[in-house]
TrEMBL record:
Keywords: Membrane, Transmembrane, Transmembrane helix. Gene3D superfamilies: 1.20.140.160. The chain crosses the membrane at residues 182-201. It comes from Flexivirga alba. It comes from the Bacteria. This is RNA polymerase sigma factor 70 region 4 type 2 domain-containing protein.
């Protein structure tokens, strides 16, 4: 009894402090006063029965109300829109599921995967719900609009909260869930018996499942993510250390292995028809947060140089089209840690700064927020040519959203650091677009060197092609001339 009395005392304090907030949240989901009150009572009664830790009661109650609401995907009928201000009426026409997903997106800042997890829905169901919400009828026409957040908060304020004592009395009086009939327990025992028998019979199948992408991820904590940087996991092969193992990779794919258990400096080597049989090595990095992918295609050879295990799992990925990949669409985290001036700065072998013989001016191109996609061109002025010099062109692309980007300098592709150290990019790879798929949006730098002293043109055409971008971007390009012997340090160099 002391535990129950203590729990009720904490619950009473919680209700006294949060009654209005609870009904505010419930109204966001139900869009009607009576259903909001019933939802609050049902959730609090369940929390009382389960003796939930009251330290997290606020967030627990809100998420439970959201989970209860997503069970109903029919438009609300209890509201009387004529009694509401016109700006609230689009919300009343949504279903409880749509309002719950919308509130978690807009108010709680959850992305689709987080929403799927907390609501215990499939990601596809969450995606379908988001697509069904008529954002064009809502202020800001975007799930990330400050106007839309204000609208939802004001909508919740329409709720009228009963007194704390009335709410607590209703919670205590709420009937427990109906007891299950006897036959359900018999059925449960039968299911358990069948499950045990099935596990014994299917033990041989378990090994096959454990080496599938789904099984391996489940067992080992997703050290081979199902999707990564435009690729999808499609197969797992056990490779013994020593001589190369042979297997086929369909289309434009990639291979990798989990570096977590490898000794430092060891890794994987791969060659395939895609890269004309040339071996490429990928040493493991302690900083790598995702698999380091080696592009491959067709008949592929893979070797591993760590013999501390009898075999190592090697993952095979397949390139996925943009339309079929789960590309992030919001809540972007934009990096701005690079500058074009820092990238163009060169140092000699002794670490001292090398001063260019002729420094160029920076060409800046910008993609407007309203129409960031397309092909954009600019003319980069080059320093005057001089004997025994090389022309270094340095560029920095600063996107703000996901998208696909491709740079051309006089029609030629420069070497590009496509925003990730986890993908081994080779010029032989057929996809020379730089794709940004994740919510973390880094800067992309590129460079090229022309050591020819006969280049007489005074300008080159810089071309940037952009696809699927959702916001503005900035491109900066500059050309400098240095002595051909880059190890030499000018007399006027800075330390």
């Amino acid at each position: 009894m002391r535990v129950r009395d203590h729990q009720d005392g904490q619950l009473e304090e919680f209700i006294a402090a949060r009654t209005q907030d609870l009904h505010h949240d419930a109204y966001q989901f139900t869009a009607a006063q009576q259903p909001a009150e019933e939802l609050v009572i049902a959730v609090l009664a369940a929390m009382r029965r389960e003796q939930i830790d009251m330290a997290q009661a606020g967030s627990t109650a809100r998420l439970r109300m959201a989970r209860a609401s997503v069970r109903d995907n029919t438009p609300t009928q209890d509201s009387d829109p004529s009694q509401l201000a016109a700006r609230f009426r689009p919300l009343t026409r949504l279903s409880p599921r749509q309002r719950a997903v919308l509130a978690l997106q807009v108010v709680d800042n959850y992305d689709e995967r987080e929403t799927s997890r907390v609501l215990r829905m499939t990601t596809r169901a969450v995606t379908d719900t988001i697509r069904s919400i008529p954002y064009d009828e809502l202020p800001g026409a975007s799930p990330h609009s400050g106007e839309l957040r204000s609208l939802l908060e004001d909508f919740g304020d329409l709720a009228t909260a009963p007194s704390a004592s009335t709410t607590l009395a209703d919670v205590r009086a709420a009937p427990p869930p109906p007891r299950r009939p006897w036959w359900t327990y018999v059925a449960a025992l039968l299911v358990i018996a069948l499950t045990v028998g099935t596990l014994v019979i299917s033990q041989s199948r378990y090994e096959e499942w454990a080496h599938s992408p789904k099984g391996l991820n489940h067992i080992h904590g997703t050290h081979f993510p199902a999707y990564t940087e435009g690729y999808k996991l499609v197969a797992i092969h056990d490779v013994k250390p020593g001589p190369p193992a042979e297997f086929s990779v369909d289309g434009s794919g990639a291979v990798t292995m989990n570096c977590a258990d490898l000794r430092p400096g060891l890794g994987i080597s791969s060659s395939s028809e895609l890269n004309s049989g040339t071996y490429f090595n990928a040493a493991c990095s302690a900083k790598a947060q995702q698999p380091q992918l080696i592009p491959a295609g067709g008949q592929t050879s893979v070797s591993i140089n760590d013999s501390s295990r009898p075999s190592w799992p090697v993952a095979v990925y397949r390139k996925v089209s943009w339309e079929d990949y789960p590309v992030a669409t919001g809540h972007f985290v934009v990096a701005r840690d690079k500058t074009v001036d820092a990238l163009r700065r060169q140092t000699g072998r002794n670490g001292q700064r090398i001063t260019p013989l002729a420094a160029g001016t920076v060409l800046t191109m910008r993609g407007p927020a309203g129409s960031p996609n397309g092909t954009f061109r600019g003319q980069l002025e080059l320093p005057a040519s001089a004997g025994a010099t090389e022309l270094d062109i340095t560029g920095l692309l600063s996107p703000t959203t996901t998208g696909r980007f491709r740079v051309r300098l006089n029609g030629q592709a420069p070497w590009m650091n496509c925003a990730s150290s986890n993908v081994t990019r080779m010029t032989l790879h057929p996809d020379d677009w730089c794709g940004l798929y994740d919510r973390h949006i880094p800067q992309v730098d590129f460079s090229t060197v022309d050591a020819s002293s006969t280049l007489r043109t005074r300008r080159i055409t810089v071309e940037l092609s952009v696809q699927h971008a959702r916001g503005p971007w900035t491109l900066q390009v500059v050309a400098d001339r240095y002595k051909t012997d880059a190890s030499a340090v000018d007399d006027g160099a800075n330390g």
